[in-house]
Write a structure and sequence with these properties.
By secondary structure, the protein is an alpha/beta fold. It has helices at 13-24, 31-44, 52-60, 89-98, 102-118, 128-132, 146-159, 166-182, 204-218; strands spanning 2-6, 27-30, 64-69, 72-77, 80-82, 121-125, 138-143, 195-198. It is globular. The protein binds cytidine-5'-monophosphate (C5P).
Length: 219
């Protein structure tokens, strides 16, 4: 079974996807972490992020795995665990830049399909329900107000030890949403048959419970 969870940055996707995958015993494929890893490795190799082919070459050289460890879903990139180093504001920005390259998306979408088919999975991202798994058994699109999303991101970044300013994070979130929604290939958008959820006021538990009920009906 495939559960597709899409939505903009900070909408609560990751928290909801993690809780859902743990409850169901499914693998959790964090596709944003894959774009982040490609951005991180490209910068580390001195590759020009505007050079689509060079970044795609980096993407093709990477293999990804996901493992739950101490309540965290850890991405392994060529056997190496990546943690906070891919969560900085700089990597967020760079991931959104390199994710607009068609060759990069082609490679990562193909790897996401491969990893997702290995076993029942929850995949979270921007284009899972529209492009990666349009036939997913359950598609969910999660949103929240930009202000709430900015506050959540600030909390995450503070925990990662970054000094951050709420107004700046809000303007970066709005800019990143615009880049992700307006790009030509696989833009961020709700699949027509996706269940829309607004997490501005609802608790994670209530949303996860509702999704588990939906999945039980599908089984
Ligand atoms: O979800 P997260 O914030 O970690 O994603 C980082 C960036 O990766 C997004 O801003 C987006 O540009 C890109 N992304 C994407 N398609 C996905 C997942 C993430 O383009 N399926």
């Amino acid at each position: 079974m495939i559960v597709a969870i899409d939505g903009p940055a900070g909408a609560g996707k990751s928290t909801i996807a993690r809780a859902l995958a743990e409850r169901l015993g499914f693998q959790l494929v964090d596709t944003g972490a894959m774009y982040r890893a490609v951005a991180f490795e490209s910068s580390a190799s001195g590759v020009d992020l505007a050079d689509a082919e060079a970044v795609a070459e980096i993407a093709r050289s990477l293999r990804f795995e996901f493992k739950f460890e101490d309540g965290e879903n850890v991405i392994y990139c060529n056997g190496r665990a990546l943690h906070q180093e891919i969560r900085s504001a700089e990597v967020s920005r760079n991931a959104s830049v390199i994710s607009a390259h068609p060759q990069v998306r082609e490679e990562l979408v193909s790897q996401q399909r491969q990893v997702g088919r290995e076993r029942s999975s929850v995949l979270e991202g921007r284009d899972i329900g529209t492009v990666v798994f349009p036939d997913a058994e359950l598609k969910v699109f999660i949103t929240a107000s930009p202000e709430v999303r900015a506050h959540r991101r600030v909390e995450q970044m503070r925990q990662a030890g970054e000094v951050v300013d709420v107004a700046q994070v809000l303007s970066e979130i709005v800019a990143r949403d615009r880049r992700d929604s307006e790009r030509k290939i696989a833009p961020l958008k709700k699949a027509e048959d996706a269940l829309g959820i607004d997490s501005t006021e609802a608790s994670v538990d209530a949303i996860v419970n509702a999704l588990c009920e939906r999945i039980a009906e599908l089984r």
